[in-house]
Amino acid sequence: MTAAAVTAAQLLLRTRELLAAHPPATTAREDFLRARFDAGLAWVHYPEGLGGLGAPRTLQAVVDAELEAAAAPDNDPRRIGIGLGMAAPTILAYGTEEQKRRFLRPLWIGEEVWCQLFSEPGAGSDLAALGTRAVRAADGDGDWVVDGQKVWTSSAHTARWAILIARTDPALPKHQGITYFLCDMHAPGVEVRPLRQITGEAEFNEVFLTGVKIPDAHRLGEVGQGWAVARTTLMNERVSIGGMRIPREGGMIAPVAAAWRGRPELRTHALHQRLLELWVEAEVARLTGERLRQQLAAGAPGPEGSGMKLAFARLNQEISGLEVELLGEEGLLYEDWTLRRPEIVDFTGRDAGYRYLRAKGNSIEGGTSEILLNIVAERVLGLPAEPRDDKDLAWKDLAR
User: Fold this and answer.
1) I need a surface site. Which of 28, 44, 176, 365 has the fewest CB within 10 A?
2) Which residues of 303-333 are buried (b: 16+ CB within 10 A; e: fewer)?
3) Smallest Cα–Cα separation from 370: which of 319, 280, 283, 306?
4) What is the maximal distance between C-alpha atoms in the chain?
5) Helix (H, G, I), strand (E, B) or coil at 34
6) Could you write out the three-class secondary structure of 45-57?
7) Rounded to two decimals, what is the model's pTM?
8) pLDDT digits (tens, 9 = 90+) for 169-216
9) Cα dihedral 203/127/80/315 (nearest 10)
10) Cα-based distances in Å from 225 to 6, 137, 284
11) How many angstroms separate the Cα of 25 from the Cα of each of 31, 53, 98, 274, 277?
12) CA-CA distance, 370 to 132, in Å (whole number)?
């Protein structure tokens, strides 16, 4: 079935057939999700046999609306966002047929949670400077042994698999000596430690890799191609963070608008003006995100996703700051400082204090705002690149 051959009516019929064969009210959640994947209704733009039908990406909304109306279970996308938004499109783009069939189904269903082992204590904004090493195993079987440390790893404490980049040739320039792997988080030598954040929670982690053996069959892309593969991941990451589909007056602006309408005693003229400005900006960002998703239907994500992620971070921080100010003394309260290790980030289901504190991380995670500004300047606006004197030096010769 070709993309041009798939119509909205055909997808609607197939969705209704799925619901008839597997009624959500009487079918176990996991069984329904497996049946949905096998019917090609998981992500309709993926190839047949991999949860899709090769249909236009825009037709996913037809399937989702019909399933939502039938109260069908979803795959809890907030819990498995790294897998859906980063690992899956990268595996689809660079994986072997065996890798695609092994990993995509349990990833989408949520049977296997994924995390991202990219950033390091000495390689955050300059990710290509990473020092985690992968060398061929001494036993000559062609597999790899990985040693190093990763940091700011969301969901590492719940993850079964990780996307990992490591240096395989220190004699090459930093962007050229990197290889991309799929790492078993349950393998011997993987240690996950919590990183307590300003919210009191440990949603992030640091991960220590000591003699971790990775089969060559879990290498994604060619040896030394890791930076190109990682760029695919990063572009998709920024779209998934900044381009999330939300309804009008949804997301962070929703609780502020609700407080304004329900608490007239809190209103002032100055706060009203700020709320109006931020409401309009949030709506513009929402519509821009919708346009970006439409562009994605025609190809792979580009640097425009970096612009959306920039807007997402700034708006979240300004809106949450306005909410705290609007609530006055109430806004200074915080529900609980207990150390917890949550599975999801719940911006709208928590209190104003949590939103204010957690939003501070939005300008760091998924690429710092400073780096994203450079990407937008160079790849969207076409401005000259910043001078870099380390691009052609061997990684082993770089000052550290």
Assistant:
1) 28
2) bbbbbbbbbbbbbbbbbbbbbbbbbeeebee
3) 306
4) 73
5) helix
6) CCCECCCECCCCH
7) 0.89
8) 999 999 999 999 999 999 999 999 999 999 999 989 999 999 999 999
9) 70
10) 34, 20, 37
11) 12, 26, 34, 46, 44
12) 24
Q: What are the tokens at 130?
A: 């990473």
CA distance 111 to 42: 14
Residue 185 phi/psi, 5-degree rounding, is: -75, -10
Angle between helices 8-21 and 60-69 (to 10 degrees): 30
Hunting for tokens 């792997």 — which residue is that? 181
In the numeric block, which tokens belong to residue 196?
A: 């307590």
d(CA 316, CA 278): 10
Amino acid code (one letter) for 381: L
DSSP line for 338-395 = -----SS--STTS-HHHHHHHGGGGGTTTS-HHHHHHHIIIIIS-PPPPP-SSTTSBG
Pick the catalytic residue from 120, 237, 304, 323: 237
Digit-coded pLDDT (tens) for 238-252: 666 655 677 888 889
Interatomic CA distance for residues 288 and 242, integer angstroms: 10
Element (H, E) at 114: strand 114-117
Q: Is 208 left (phi over 0), alpha (psi -120 to 50) or beta?
A: beta
Q: 34, 73 in Cβ contact below 8 A?
A: no
Cα distances from 275 to residues 120, 172, 255, 269, in angstroms, run 38, 51, 12, 10
Query: Cβ–Cβ contacts within 10 Å for residue 200, how many?
Result: 15
- Our answer to whether residue 237 is catalytic in this structure is yes
Note the pLDDT tens digit of each residue in 61-77: 999 999 999 999 999 99
pLDDT tens-place string over residues 106-153? 999 999 999 999 999 988 778 999 999 999 998 878 899 999 999 999
Q: Kindly report, residue by residue over 288-330, the tens digit of the pLDDT.
A: 887 777 666 555 566 667 778 888 899 999 999 999 999 998 9
Give strand ranges (E) for 169-294: 178-184, 190-195, 204-214, 219-220
The secondary structure of 228-248 as a DSSP string is: HHHHHHHHHHHHHHHS----T
Token look-up 């733009």 returns: 45
What whole-number distance in Å separates Cα of residue 51 and Cα of residue 92? 11
